[in-house]
Amino acid sequence: MHTVEKIGGTSMSSFNEVLDNIIFYPQSLYQRIFVVSAYSGITNGLLECKKTGKPGIYQAVADHDPQWQQQLAQLKDRMLLINHDMFSDPMARRQADHFIIERLEKAQSCIQNILDTCQFRQFSLAGYLPQIREFLSSIGEAHSAFNTALLLSLHKVNARFVDLSGWDSERSGNLDEVLTQAMADIDLSQELPIVTGYVSCDEGLMQTYDRGYSEMTFSRLAVLTGAKEAVIHKEYHLSSADPGIVGADAVSPIGHTNYDVADQLANLGMEAIHPNAAAGLRKAGINLVIKNTFEPEHAGTRITQSYQPTQDKVDIIAGKNHICALHIFDQTMVGKIDNISYQIIEIIRQERVQVVGKEMNANSMTYYLSGHEKAQKKVLKKVEALFPLGHISAEMVALISVIGAQIDQNSILYNAIIALNQQGILPQAMHTPLRNVDVQFVVADKDYDATIRTLHQALMEQTPVCLQSVKVA
């Protein structure tokens, strides 16, 4: 039985550690499939910054910004510098340089031809943008996968570069069909496949899963090949909170949890794994392990479908800031909620922002939206046009979740409200879903860090006060 393992972008940028702590770490060298991300920051440069929305090459092309060619030249310099740092052997470096230079030159030529064509009024750039985005997305993973296979060959490893980016390939079909074709002639007992995180397929991986595409590749490979385990190697442990906020000494790795918890984290953009990718692993009964690249001896976090703790326990305090709380109040919506919700969701989908929470009553709804500020503003304008007589407002907030495979929501609310009040933090909203896996707090955006620190200290570093059961006569 084999494993399918994904290496994150930050880890890929520390490739000596990847060699020592992952690929050559004491275990069988073969019977493994590696799916690799682009080096840290490369996909941001190709598309746009995932966190800040700063435009990359794709966004410059979409905005008709002539600087896109200069950005491409700068990105080429960064990629060649990565090659310089990876390969001391001049012949290997020349081979790696030739590979990525050829890809970038073809990409530049292709995009320029599209732009030239779109100078004629019969052709619209908007119609080509999805293909350009898919096209650019593939370059980062092809670069890192080619380099990895080449470097491993220098270490006498029988590694195979599995290029699923669609360049000069005869493979076709949906994601599952392309992956099945690619793996058909690989003997895992004698070869080590290094697979690009991006796959060119009929459904368009970027269009369907956006920046979670490499996790879908990883997940479907594990399911289709019948892996005994799926492993994600990241630059940090999946811990009880963000160590950058709470402090490295205060947090601890989760250890063991279930896919319910992974889903809540994915909804907040924590990226334990994309929810669609997790669904495939869960259905196939494949356990997921998240490991820290820089602590190979640590067992990491094991996520299984069957795990159920015997007592209440908070696993993680997680959250997301810079959330747009879009509030719609209109007395005429009473009895029309379903139709109105559909119209709003369509607007949100069109602008490619994500709903991370929702609340409603008879005549008002609030959507908590994550995405680039520009897209959020477009949603606001369209919703205002949809409700000309309503009161529409939007403000930036933070959403923090207390998550666990089994938690006591009442006890969490009690202890959390006391702790937040002592710190002068006043929640704007609180949610306790019927499914007993999380409690959510909406606070002012400026209170994001302070809320996570306060909740972590109150619920995980101290012994919370448990509510006594109340008997009703």
Automatic annotation (TrEMBL):
EC number: 2.7.2.4
Signal peptide range: none
InterPro entries (UniProt xref): AceGlu_kinase-like_sf (IPR036393), ACT-like_dom_sf (IPR045865), Asp/Glu/Uridylate_kinase (IPR001048)
Source superkingdom: Bacteria
One Gene Ontology molecular-function label: aspartate kinase activity
Keyword vocabulary terms for this entry: ATP-binding, Kinase, Nucleotide-binding, Transferase
Pfam families from the UniProt entry: AA_kinase (PF00696)
Annotated ranges, domain Aspartate/glutamate/uridylate kinase: 3-292
Ranges in coiled-coil conformation: none
Catalytic activity: L-aspartate + ATP = 4-phospho-L-aspartate + ADP
Transferase in keyword set: yes
Family to which this protein belongs: Belongs to the aspartokinase family.
Name this protein carries in UniProt: aspartate kinase
Name of the gene: ask
